[in-house]
Specification:
Elements: H1 6-22, E1 27-31, E2 34-35, H2 42-60, E3 65-72, H3 76-85, H4 89-106, E4 113-116, H5 120-135, E5 139-149, E6 154-155, E7 174-184, H6 190-199, E8 204-205, H7 207-218, E9 224-225, E10 227-229, E11 238-239, E12 242-247, H8 250-259, H9 275-278, E13 284-288, H10 292-306, E14 316-320, E15 323-324, H11 340-347, H12 349-358, E16 366-367, H13 370-400, E17 403-405, H14 412-429, H15 433-454, H16 456-459, H17 466-487, H18 492-502, E18 521-523
Parallel strand pairs: 1-3, 1-13, 2-3, 3-4, 8-14, 13-14, 15-16
Antiparallel strand pairs: 5-6, 5-7, 7-9, 10-12, 11-12, 17-18
Helix pairs in contact: 3-4, 5-8, 6-7, 7-10, 8-10, 11-12, 12-13, 13-15, 13-17, 14-15, 14-17, 15-17, 17-18
Bound molecules: 5'-O-[(L-methionyl)-sulphamoyl]adenosine (MSP).
Length: about 525
């Protein structure tokens, strides 16, 4: 009789278990999809870079990542902007969409899937969901009567009345209208949403945004109007149960998060969805503070609940703050929007990515300043990091023909690097990218101070200190290797250049950022200035 081999038995068991439990689940991250009414501004750039940095951090950790972003192409404002430009809406959105695509390319925003809401694939999912909700009695037709602003093309409610109780001149000519539309039974799910928010304390990050959302849900009254008659708006997805109407507009926009991830509206439970979808969902969803209430925090969570997503499968909402200008909101109408293309042209991609991730705390607002952008680049990148790389490589070439050799003895930098890695990871777990960068830059400063203190130029003059010189050069190269890895989610192109100059393997993982992995005898590449100073 054959003897059972305990090792192979254990292996078989492991394989069996892995089939069900250890399949790596994808880290799914999304952003808001931008309106294609006008070209991208710095606020759009910020959100996508933030998501890109978090996505890259997860790739670095070895996770399977699915990063979805895109554009919101339907709606009244788009129809109006197209009319103003004198081109058909389809042509208009094509042009603006291309500007977004171009920006993400030059900004190194590396997404895995691109959402365009005019695509057939998306339309089918939106219509499938609407039909299911209609069949389930969650959507009904009703009549609305009230004052209608012809200039703004919308019904006015009491919220639009001024302190004197009248509608102000900004609404232009008003007429009393009656209109039939379709409504989604939002208020039926109010209690569910309150109990869900009470159960899940990190449904929304930061905390104060969850509180803001909960307060808004408490006040939730009516249902959600989800249609416009085609006579008023035709640039949208037709309602599958009434061809005289198009969907307006959040159902269309919000559905992108699942339609471009493989959701099949014909299958009513999450468990019956294709594995490609189940492997990804739920997502971490990055949005700006203006679209938490009511769009994502109320409409979206209730929509998902109404189409059968269980509480455990609700997405997590990460809400970022806004970039303002001189304390005021940037807006196209105020004429104070900052053009990211112009900034990149002037200062480069690294400078912009670095500024947008290091000079704002996730969740808070910040004031945009071009001087500050230049200052941060010059101080942190040109003077501190660039200089550290350049000095280290130059000294290694001058004193050791570019070869660094490991010597015995511990370095204080080893403990600091371990500390850095720990804090960097904690900061990323909390989505505090600015804090991760601050830690990294502290370490860079420590390394520069270490050069001053150890004065390799003096050691080089003293033959009895030869081993000490080897030690200093080696630990500096090792430190730079780790810095290169940890800066790669933030500045991917600069990180490639650092690896190239250090002559080490590209495409590392976070685990490579542990101290002690540089080969004992290593030939460094030639130095070239990495971040030339910006002179203004
Ligand atoms: N199309 C909707 C979102 C639909 S998501 C299913 C929309 N588009 S938007 O173009 O107006 O805004 C897109 C994102 O950019 C939002 O998350 C918004 O908060 C963000 N920002 C717009 N201006 C911003 C700043 N000034 N600063 C930071 N982010 C800003 O809303």
């Amino acid at each position: 009789m054959l003897q059972e081999d305990p090792a192979s038995e254990a292996l078989a068991l492991q394989r069996f278990v892995r089939q069900f439990h250890f399949v790596p689940k994808t880290f799914f991250i999304t952003t808001a999809i931008d309106y294609t009414t006008s070209p991208p501004h710095i606020g759009h750039a910020y959100e996508k870079v933030l998501a890109d940095v978090i996505a890259r951090y997860h790739r670095l950790k070895g996770d399977n990542v699915f990063f979805l972003t895109g554009v919101d192409q339907h709606g009244q404002k788009v129809q109006q902007s197209a009319a103003k430009a004198g081109v058909p809406p389809a042509e208009f959105v094509k042009g603006i969409t291309q500007k977004f695509v171009d920006l993400w390319k030059i900004l190194d925003v590396k997404y895995d899937e691109w959402a365009e809401t005019t695509s057939e694939r998306h339309k089918k999912v939106v219509q499938g969901i609407l039909q299911r909700l209609f069949d389930a009695g969650q959507i009904y037709k009703d009549k609305q009567a009230g004052y209608y602003s012809i200039r703004q093309e919308q019904f006015l409610t009491d919220k639009e009345r001024g302190p004197d109780g009248e509608f102000g001149p900004e609404w232009g000519q008003l007429e009393f209208r009656e209109e039939e539309n379709y409504y989604f039974r939002l208020s039926q799910h109010k209690d569910w949403l309150l109990s869900y928010l009470d159960k899940r304390k990190d449904a929304v990050i930061p905390d104060f945004r969850q509180t803001e959302l909960r307060n808004a849900v408490e006040k939730l009254g009516g249902d959600l109007c989800i249609s416009r008659p085609k006579s008023r708006l035709d640039w949208g997805i037709e309602l599958p149960f009434d061809k005289n109407f198009v969907n307006y507009v959040w159902f269309d926009a919000l559905t992108n998060y699942i339609s471009f991830a493989g959701y099949d509206p014909a299958l009513s439970t999450l468990n019956s969805q294709p594995t490609t979808f189940r492997d990804k969902w739920p997502a971490l969803q990055i949005i700006g503070k203006d679209i938490l209430v009511p769009a994502h925090g109320i409409y979206w969570l209730i929509m998902l609940h109404a189409i059968g997503f269980p509480d455990e499968a609700m997405p997590q909402l990460l809400v970022h703050g806004w970039w303002n200008l001189g304390g005021a909101k940037m807006s196209k109408s105020a004429g104070n929007v900052i053009d990211p293309f112009a900034l990149i042209e002037k200062y480069g991609t690294d400078a912009l990515r670095y500024y947008l991730t290091s000079d704002i705390a996730t969740g808070q607002d910040a004031d945009f300043s071009e001087e500050r952008l230049v200052e941060r680049y010059n101080t942190d990148l040109a003077n501190s990091l660039g200089n550290l790389l350049n000095r280290t490589l130059n000294m290694a070439h001058r004193y050791r023909d570019g070869v660094v050799n490991k010597t015995g003895g511990d370095s204080p930098l080893a403990a600091q690097a371990a500390d850095l890695l720990r804090h960097y990871q904690i900061a990323f777990q909390r989505f505090e990218v600015h804090a991760a960068i601050a830690r990294l830059m502290e370490f860079v400063t420590t390394c520069n101070t270490y050069i001053e203190m150890s004065a390799p130029w003096k050691l080089a003059k003293d033959p009895t200190r030869s081993e000490a010189l080897d030690h200093v050069l080696f630990v500096l190269a090792e430190s730079l290797r780790i810095i290169g890895i940890l800066i790669s989610p933030i500045l991917p192109t600069a990180a490639h250049e650092i690896f190239y100059q250090l002559n080490i393997r590209d495409e590392p993982q976070t685990s490579d950022a542990n101290w002690g992995l540089l080969p004992e005898r290593h030939h460094l590449g030639k130095p070239t200035p990495l971040f030339p100073r910006i002179e203004v």
